[in-house]
Input
Amino acid sequence: MTDTATTPGTAAQPTRTYAKLAADESREDYSLRYAPHSFRRWGPGTVAGTALGGIAYLADFAIGVSIVFAYGFTSGAAAILAAAVVIFLTGIPIARACATYGLDMDLVTRGAGFGYFGSTLTSLIYASFTFIFFALEGSIMAQAMHQAFGLPVEIGYLVTTLIVIPIVFRGMGALAKVQAWTQPVWLIGLVLPFVVLAFHAPDTWGAFADFGGTEGAGSGFSWIGFGFGTGIALSLIAQIGEQADYLRFMPAKTPANSRRWNLAVLAAGPGWVIIGAAKQLGGAFLAFVALEAVGKTHALEPIAPQIEALRPWLGGFALPAAALFVIVSQIKINVTNAYSGSLSWSNFFSRVTHRHPGRVWYIFLNLGIALTLMELDMFAMLGKLLGFYSNVGIAWIAAVAADLVINKRLGLSPPYIEFKRAYLYAVNPAGFGSMVIASTVSILAFFGLFGPYAEAFSTFIAAGLALLLCPLIAWVTRGKYYLARPNTVTGPGAAAADITATHACAVCEAAYELPDIADCPVRSGPICSLCCSLDATCGDVCRKETRGGAVILPMPSVGARGTRAPRPHLTQGGWRPPGGYT
Output
């Protein structure tokens, strides 16, 4: 991104030219913006299928094994199902908000109680989710390549990292194709082992229900085991962010597609956890069946139980068949991890540095961190790492869900999602404060400060505090910190306007749909959300100045996305948003 010469006849008002990769939306995928209707060219079914393709990961298998092996079947299964209920319920409002407003998780978080800079912390939390799980999935893929081809796992880590780059580089179009093409292979590989065992070893299903784990937990129910197991399973709660990265491309909801739209959003949003919970229990079952043959260490690696389950029917072909399934599964999820990670890093650095070289450059940052974690063998620390992470992740997601479900319905926050810097306070204590307090208390509990039961149920403490504090703080502050000034362009008080009509940004001179536009007194005209974010010199005047006595001129508009229009006449007065100023 560069600044060019000033426009003749105006004050010092430099225009902006974005770097080639940042300006190419076929690569950029509106990483820091509202996803315009002109880009949402996929149907509800295609978007949902692409989003669900990203949950092919086998970390679910490893997580399920670690929970059931540690705490036994009864406590482990109860923990997995309880976590699934929490994830499903918190995911519903988030998925609907992202699909309705065309926003990713970071942009929704900004307007759902965190503020413009407050959500930078959640960008880091989300980025850490993507590279932690990329490393876990990459480790599983490297294990498969080692077993199938004899490739050293250290080299396998590098291969699993490099293989996703060309796909993620090309953005949503390439991701949709990869998920669609690989879906049949993945579905067959997922179901076949259980079909084989149903015929070959039907008695093992009953024996699994009496399994007491490998750590002496016993087959009965334990509250401590249930709490710890739920904490590990809840580490997946931030997966809704990756689902949202696809859901923002959902087409507009209309009377004609309403039923398909609702079903697609439900299935691809919170619905992922239904499959996820089934995979956790299924992975634990396969590991239980293979435990005697492969031992505890290898039973934790999804490739070994897969081979043992397929061996009765496939014999010598069990190894290549299992390896193919694992590799396909890990490519499907790690392209999503890398893609979502590039979005979260873009959001973080654009606000901190006021620069945006393009989403694709942050792919390499995210993958570099993930590769380092793989080389450090983080797979061996799976349970403790995920248990700690879930305390922070659930505090964040619960705070956002509380704003969408409670605050907005009670009128404590605006009825829509405002994501643009021009209208937001830097920090909103409602969401940001509740997350910080909830995660801090739960982490202290996780490290045993409040006793063994609080340690086991630290994630419940995080969720409960976030759900309670977010509306409480919003009520105490009377919702003051949600909007720094009214949005008269697209907010509820604005006059009716065609939101699909495009308008020329006074800075970069490109055309964007109305929801991506703010009125800027410094530019005396419309400014797109990204140019607004990257402006380091405006001093946030728009939040401080009134416009009394301004000469109001009409807003320029253009017909098609990407075409240039004359810049607004930059006089002392400026640009009039649709409906005028309130």
In short: Residues 1-12, 546-582 have pLDDT under 50 and may be disordered. The chain has 22 helices and six strands. The longest helix spans residues 59-101.
